Amino acid sequence: MNKMLALQVHELADDLSGTKLAELPIPQIAAGEVLVRIEAAALGFPDLLMTRGGYQAKPPLPFVPGMESAGVVVEAAEGSRWRAGDRVITGGLTGGVAQYGVFANNALMSLPGLLSMAQGASLRAAYLTAWVALVRRGQALAGDWLLVHGAAGGVGLAAVDLGIALGLRVIAVASSETKREAIARLYSPAHVIDGAAGFREQVLALTDGHGADLVFDPVGGDVFDESTRCIAFDGRLLVIGFAGGRIPQVGANIPLIKGFSVVGVRAGEYGRRFPERGAENLESVHKLASDGSIVPHVDACYSMQDWEKAYRAMESRSVIGRSVILPHG
Q1: What string of DSSP letters covers 139-184?
Q2: What is the pTM for the complete model shown?
Q3: Which CATH fold topology does 125-269 show?
Q4: Using CA atoms, how far apart are residues 296 and 321, in angstroms rounded to an integer?
Q5: Residue 261: which H helix or E strand, with range?
Q6: What is the mean pLDDT of residues 314-328?
Q7: CATH topology of domain 3-123+296-326
Q8: What is the distance between the alpha carbons of residues 249 and 326, in angstroms, rounded to a whole number?
Q9: Would you kindly state where each structural domain of the chain is located, as residue ranges?
Q10: Exposed / middle / buried, residue 166 (Cβ in 10 Å: 0-12, 13-18, 19+)
Q11: Cβ-count burial of 17 within 10 angstroms (0-12 exposed, 13-18 middle, 19+ buried)?
């Protein structure tokens, strides 16, 4: 067999009309590469944006989407530390939503034994972002108050889970009752609040007027603005992204007077700029997943034929955690 089924973006379009299933040749490995039979591919919001050309990275057309996947090594180039049969997590800009994929040796990590393939596919990007934000950039200390916006999303939920594992006091903000109930059920130590009606007073009440030491913000817009009004002195407002649409601005006098820092977080770039620390970050996340301290939440699994349902669920922002496509399911 030399053919595989893959999802392919052949034209950029806002309505997914430029994305379809395709039968493609199984890719061949070159030096330094590994062929993986992909068992699960997790979807994140960047995967949706890339089908529209709305993400900062714009792969040449056509391309196979999917930044995260997990599977089993089929073949590895000579000199690789990977062997056929190894269970691995992959990472890259593209290539995940396919039955097979070729990845660089250093783009793989072993699948923690406690995780399923779907959970493993959901681990790397979200938890690496959360780790770099909270530990590297936020300098989190046990007992700090952590305010997480977009807490039901893949990255937000990872920040809630990791925050609890690090001994932080977590306040999770979610927009719907369904999402709040799910977070409370999955992560009972966290305080879960409704951000739709404003959250400043709720945060100040929960923290006895202290405010949030760390704010994890993948939303931006009005959420960022209000976060500046409930952040603690010496707090760190961690800018993850702008899922809310509007890129906010803050006058320099506000962080000066209130004594907080606005800190940008780019987990992938952090690892590229500081390779040794990047390897340490992955190792730390892997260790926490291996001992059960963190567990990625999979909202639903879809067959390859139902790929559009998975993307539509993500587009509607109804997903709690990650949606996962099972290429052989």
Answers
A1: ---TT-EEEESSTTSHHHHHHHHHHHHTT-EEEEEESSHHHHHHHH
A2: 0.93
A3: Rossmann fold (3.40.50)
A4: 7
A5: strand 261-264
A6: 94
A7: Quinone Oxidoreductase; Chain A, domain 1 (3.90.180)
A8: 41
A9: 3-123+296-326, 125-269
A10: buried
A11: exposed
C-alpha span between 125 and 282 (Å, rounded): 10
Instruction: Give the whole-angstrom CA distance, residue 195 versus residue 178.
Output: 13
Token pair for 66: 């999917």
Could you tell me the two tokens for 172?
Answer: 């999770």
Q: Taking residues 51-66, what's their average pLDDT?
A: 93
Band (1; pLDDT cuts 50, 70, 90): low
Determine how many CB atoms are found less than 10 A away from the CB of residue 55: 16
Tokens of 256: 């000066």
Q: What six digits make up the tokens of 94? A: 């593209």
C-alpha dist (Å) from residue 247 to 50, 109, 219, 224, 225: 19, 34, 9, 9, 10
* Cβ 59 vs Cβ 94: under 8 Å: yes
- Looking up tokens 């992959």 gives 90
Structure tokens at 275: 């390779």
What is the rounded CA–CA span in Å between residue 277 and residue 273? 9
